[in-house]
Structure formats: structure tokens, C-alpha cells
Write a structure and sequence with these properties.
alpha+beta; single chain; 5 helices
């Protein structure tokens, strides 16, 4: 065997060993044991570094007033979803949002679960099976852990996100053909999209002017989106519970597979201390969607502002 043959054989053996080690790494990385160990590390880190941040939080969101008055543990909201295209209106699905109370490594948190489903008979058109959950620290209303599992038509997204609010870092794991993990720096006061909904409910829009805007930094899928929430004044809205005076709010939508760039969602929330979304409308790439409150329970405050 010549020296060149020996060198080539040695290189081949090295490449084979490297490939074997690479396969071993990916097998271990994608194993349930590794994912559990990695998540436990993230959770323990988050609990270690979580610190009260109320002063900076209120500085980021001026005009919010007293927090936590809009909802409480035990609140449940259920919605009927309608699809609109030209002259066609179809009741195509339903959604629900539920607030409970859970400890997150010793920290008291609101645990919010949001579910969205299309009816099976419409799955051929656009199948939706969405689950979002979040832990919201009751002390300073910051995101602690956010989980997303959304299946919309052919697009599936699954990720788990843990917030280190002291270092302003979010650690996340994404599930696809393989698992991947990474981290991203976020601005002070950044919250996940579900926490952002409840943050908006806590804003005292009476303290700001009509058409004034509040900027909310929303974290989603490893990125930060600067979402503008604009107060449009008061309007009366009819519902299955009667006619109510509402606060009308415009919210920028995050562009993706169903929303156009620059599209805005309109929310009519009850003009009382609950600020409960009574009606929601959003344009889609094709048509639009409408969510109407179907039932509610466990409200923190009396439902007021009914128009007689």
C-alpha cells in the first residue's frame, strides 16, 4: 500500500468516525431525555433570574394604570368563529380562553390556555388545531413560559419558550423534522402574544386620547414584533347578551400565512372594568374572520355598560 493509499484510508476512517459521532449527537439531542434535561435547566435558570420589574414595566407602557383589575383566576371565555368571503358567512369553528392559577418554580402565576378549532366538516378547506399556553407572573405581569402548538392548513408550528426577565433573553426549543434550540435577546417589557392580549385588557384607555397608540413588544417564534395598539373611541355593539357600549381598539397583526403585511385587527371590548373582548374582526389574505363571544363565566367585575 502506497503512502497516498494509507493517507486516503486514514482520512476515510476519520470521516466515518465523525459521521458516527454526529449521528450519535443528533440521536441524543432529539431524545426525550435530553429535551427534559434541557427544559429543566431553562426553567431553573428562569426561576433564579426572575426579578420584580414593575417600575420599568410601567415606564414601557404608560397609561396602563393599575394592573390585574380586568380578570381573575377562573375566568373562561368562549367564542364562535365565522368566516366571511363576499356574500358568504359560515360558522367554521370555535375558540376558548381559560385562566387558572399555577406555580412556576415557586412563583405564583396566571396560567392562560387558549384553544382554537375548526369544525371537522370544514377541515378540508382550512384545518385549525391551535393550542397556546402561558405563565404570567402575578407580581409584575411578565411572561415566564410560553408554549405554542398551532396546526393551520399545512403549516405546523410547535415551540416552547422560557423567559429570563433579568437578562432579557428568551430560550426556546422548536420542533420540526428535528428539534432545535436557541436563544434571543428581547427588549425590556417584551411579552408573548397571549400575555399581550391580557396586558391590553389591563390598559386604562380612559387615561389616553382617541387615536393615541401604545407600543407593545411581542415575542413570537424567536423574533420581536413591535405591535401598535390604537384606541379608536367608544361604540355600541350588539351581541347575544344584548347591546353594550364598548371600547374600540385597533391592533396590528403579525404577517404570516393568513394575515397580510400591515393588516389590522379590530377589537370591541366591554367598556367596564373587565375590558372583555365582545367582538373581534380581522382581515385574511382571502376573506375575513369574525369571533363573537358566545359564553363567559368567572368574571372579576360586574358586566356593565349595557345599552337599554
Amino acid at each position: 500500500m502506497t503512502q497516498a493509499d494509507k493517507t486516503e484510508t486514514s482520512n476515510t476512517i476519520s470521516r466515518n468516525n465523525a459521521e458516527k459521532n454526529k449521528r450519535r449527537f443528533f440521536i441524543y439531542f432529539n431524545s426525550g431525555k435530553f429535551r427534559r434535561m434541557f427544559l429543566a435547566f431553562l426553567l431553573s435558570s428562569a426561576s433564579l433570574y426572575a426579578q420584580p420589574n414593575c417600575s420599568s414595566f410601567r415606564a414601557v407602557y404608560p397609561g396602563c394604570g393599575a394592573l390585574y383589575k380586568a380578570f381573575k383566576q377562573g375566568e373562561r371565555l368562549e367564542y364562535k368563529l365565522y368566516y366571511h368571503w363576499r356574500f358568504l358567512w359560515l360558522q367554521t369553528g370555535e375558540a376558548s380562553v381559560n385562566v387558572t392559577f399555577k406555580d412556576f418554580y415557586g412563583m405564583p402565576c396566571y396560567y392562560v390556555t387558549a384553544l382554537g378549532r375548526s369544525y371537522p366538516k370544514y377541515d378540508w378547506f382550512y384545518k385549525i388545531r391551535d393550542t397556546l399556553t402561558t405563565y404570567i407572573d402575578t407580581l409584575n405581569f411578565t411572561s415566564m413560559r410560553f408554549y405554542r402548538s398551532t396546526h393551520e392548513a399545512s403549516v405546523n408550528v410547535v415551540n416552547d419558550n422560557v423567559f429570563d426577565n433579568k437578562k432579557h433573553i428568551v430560550y426556546y426549543m422548536k420542533e420540526g423534522k428535528t428539534y432545535s434550540r436557541d436563544s434571543v435577546r428581547v427588549p425590556d417589557g417584551a411579552v408573548d402574544i397571549l400575555t399581550g392580549v391580557y396586558l391590553t385588557r389591563c390598559i386604562d384607555f380612559g387615561a389616553i386620547g382617541v387615536k393615541d397608540t401604545i407600543l407593545v413588544n411581542i415575542y413570537l417564534d424567536g423574533k420581536i414584533y413591535k405591535v401598535h395598539v390604537r384606541y379608536l373611541g367608544k361604540e355600541e355593539v350588539s351581541s347575544s347578551f344584548g347591546r353594550y357600549r364598548c371600547e374600540k381598539i385597533s391592533v396590528e397583526l403579525i404577517a404570516g400565512t393568513i394575515f397580510r403585511e400591515g393588516a389590522k385587527m379590530i377589537v370591541w371590548a366591554t367598556d367596564d372594568e373587565n375590558h372583555m373582548p365582545l367582538l373581534v374582526e380581522a382581515p385574511l389574505i382571502i376573506g375575513s374572520v369574525r369571533a363573537e363571544l358566545e359564553s363567559f363565566s368567572g368574571l372579576r367585575n360586574t358586566m356593565e355598560r349595557k345599552v337599554k
